[in-house]
Design brief:
The complex is a heterodimer of chains A (about 350) and B (about 350). Chain A is an alpha+beta fold and about 350 residues long. Chain A has helices at about 1-10, 15-25, 135-140, 170-185, 210, 260-270, 285-290, 320-335, 335-340, and strands at about 35, 40-45, 55-60, 65-70, 80-85, 95-100, 105, 130, 150, 155-160, 160-165, 190-195, 215-225, 245-250, 250, 255, 275, 300-305, 315. Chain A folds into two domains: about 1-65 and about 165-340, 3-Layer(aba) Sandwich (Aminopeptidase); about 65-150, Elongation Factor Tu (Ef-tu), domain 3. In chain A, about 25% of the residues lie in helices and about 25% in strands. In chain A, helix 1 (about 1-10) runs antiparallel to helix 4 and helix 4 (about 170-185) crosses helix 8 (about 320-335). In chain A, about 55% of the residues are buried. With about 350 residues, chain B is of the alpha+beta class. Chain B has helices spanning about 5-15, 25-35, 125, 170-185, 210-220, 255-270, 285-290, 315-330, and strands at about 40, 50, 60-65, 70-75, 80-85, 100, 110-115, 135-140, 150-155, 160, 165-170, 195-200, 220-230, 250, 275-280, 295-305, 310-315. Chain B starts with a helix and ends in a 6-residue tail after the last helix. Classes of the chains: A alpha+beta (about 350), B alpha+beta (about 350). At the A-B interface, loops of A face loops of B.
Chain lengths: ~350, ~350
Amino acid sequence: MYLKDLCEIHGASGNEEQVRTYIQEQLKSVDQPGQVDVLGNLFFERKGNGKSDKTILLLAHMDEVGLMVTNIQDDGLLAVSPVGGVDPRVLPGKRVWVGENNTPGVIGYKAIHLQKDDYKTIPNWEKIRVDIGVQKKEEAQKTVSLGDYVHFYSAFEEYENRYVGKALDDRGGCAILMALYRELPVLDYNVVFAFVVQEEIGLRGSGSTLKRYKPDAAIIVEGTTAGDNPELKKERWSTHLDNGPAISYLQSGYALDYRLFEAILAFANQKGIQYQLKGRTVGGTDGTRLAGSYFGVPCAGVNIPSRYIHSPVSVISKKDFENTKQLIADILTEEILLKALEVKV
Amino acid sequence: MSLDTFALLKSLSAAYGPPGREREVRELFKEYVNGLVDEVYEDTSGNLIVKKYGQHKGTVFFSAHMDEVCFLVSKVLPEGFLRLEGIGVDPKLLPSQKVWIHTRSGKRLRGVIGMLAPHLQTEETRSKLNGFEDLFVDVSMSDFSEISVGDFVTFDNESFTVGDFFFGKSLDDRSCGVIIVKMLERLSALKHDFDVFAAFSSREEIGAFGARTASYELQPDIGIALDVTHAIDASPNYPKNEFGKGPAISVGAIPHRKISNLLIETAKQNGIPYQVEPSPSRTGTDGDQIQLETIATGVVSLPLRYMHTPYEQICVKDIEESARLLALFVSALKEGVV
């Protein structure tokens, strides 16, 4: 299963090699080996039948959030800093993998019995330390180096209605693109499938897609925030699990192309496909980068609602995952985006 | 053939056993002591009691508790969320933690303690310490209609080994149960005048009821509580218990001076590494309860780091050295020692 495999391999921003290799291995048998650019982005191109010279880009990012070793202390503990947006409060008591050899470690936390004033203070980066079961710096240095990536340890789990795992942002998007690349027939126009690097540290990878391809429109497939839990008032929810793919209209740094947005909504309404509007504008996606790079590409955002992203355990709805894939497949086969772009902005 | 310490720890760490619900742990210990003792039975408090007879010149009793820290479901909310109350757990460990919900019907269901993604945090929530009034468990992936208030919830994790170190949950205090098993193994090859009793005790984490009732029933001459103590992280006013340097022997009010001295003497004579732990007041172990039954009590502790977290850490060498110390201690006991 693509999604399970993708969620269980490691690839924090700048360290996407395992993810890239996996995707390339799985897809190369279809009809081509795929193209890798200098930053590490991976592309597969499905040429159209020649009736149209237009190109649609589907894009998902391969990287996940994680940690990096920034200091090896004399007592053998490792100091770490976040790679992407990680809240230190999700870390105490969790297991991690350190470095290329997957050295096991835990983020230990001082026993409750020994805490005094610090019982009332939140964990911060000065308190988060990774313990790899050694007592001295020299011992730690045998297996760990400064700059080593640290990834969350989290087995993927499948339930009747849910998937549970790390990195669903955005391996869910990657899995959908992989499935679509396999399943989609040859269309009148070209489709580029881009698996990009370094989204989580500032949308670094996606822009270079436009150096290679000249897409007329793009769909960004993301695992997006949910927030539909008791912590948050319903009015402030971003999306709600089981309510279908989340279509976004405006996000951090970019108002998504209204023609694409309206066309997707009209299409879904007409077909009776379940969807929801993302209730919040927080969070950027590679759409922001694509719209602002080179000639600028009109983008749409079709997202998988995801709870607790950027933590070791996130949760998505199986139904939403399937419906997101199906909605994008239908949008492509029925040429919804290209028709929409015939209207002037 | 000697039992593999790592294998015992792995099974024990994975077992389910909140206070008063220690059956899984008890069954494991029952299996491990098979062939090592003369008598095995469960008492009414849920303790597993074992007896290994010597020459009937006196009785010495050991206690290590089987139960673990845990949570209880305090409320079932709509749409598959739960609220929790904790028993001995720091709520700071909980965000993004996988847990098991143990239903009254005997099912084990998945739960995920979620936390709002950073994108949805506000200035106010970002710096907030989430207590049990804020934390919630997502059980939307399970058939949560079976979950009810009062169900026990435990950490889900996967123990692992690095060299001599073992990381996992509930090593407080099942690793000390392993010390008893390893001590019994060693005693099979040693002469001892004293009869040896041991309790794999229940309900320590909510007041050490198991050790109290077991010592009342058995009325031993000497009682030794085996528990864990904090390794590495120490108050500057106390010595730092280190890994690989043997058990920590308590000295103070509750540990009987004769017993502490005998333990230290035995360690010295046999070249067994040991550390000393000053206990000016209550020890926070089964020992506090054993003493109340008018029993000369000793407290021997295994150094453990990150106590009451999903990944507690111990050094397996310390288990072996503790077992060696206690076996030799038993074998040295003579009639009228206390």
